[in-house]
Amino acid sequence: MKIHHVGIAVESLEAAVPIFENLLGRGPDSEGLVADQQVRVAVFAVGESRIELLEATSPDSAIARFISKRGQGIHHLTLSVGNLAESLAQLEQQGVRLIDREPRVGAGNERIAFLHPSSTAGVLIELLEEQQVVGGGMNDEL
Ligand code: ZN
Known about the structure:
Distance between the termini: 19 Å
Number of domains: 1
Strand order of the largest sheet: 2-3-4-1-5-8-7-6
Radius of gyration: 15 Å
Number of strands: 8
Strand content: 35-45%
Bound molecules: zinc ion
């Protein structure tokens, strides 16, 4: 397992992106809109992992609800796994509460599932199935 990305809920990308630009010494690697999750995202690659800044585009977005309850901050941590269905079955057997009992397709077209924070020390954890890279190219999903 490795950390695939850390999702950070921000009130405004306009305000948050320059903070991370200063911190990392360069601009984001990509920016985009994830329409079905009602967020705008700015992605900074950091080693094998990424930092994703997430700004809500609607008050109904999970990010907007998170910020109104808890303020800005780390929203979720994503771990990549080799076989997601297998990992979920194993975790469920160990008594971990799952939000998604079956893998579903996330914004980046990858198979993902969320674990319930009540089972994971209050941290929302997303598991993501690492895609087999064919031809040596980099995946370019959010
Ligand atoms: Zn994420």
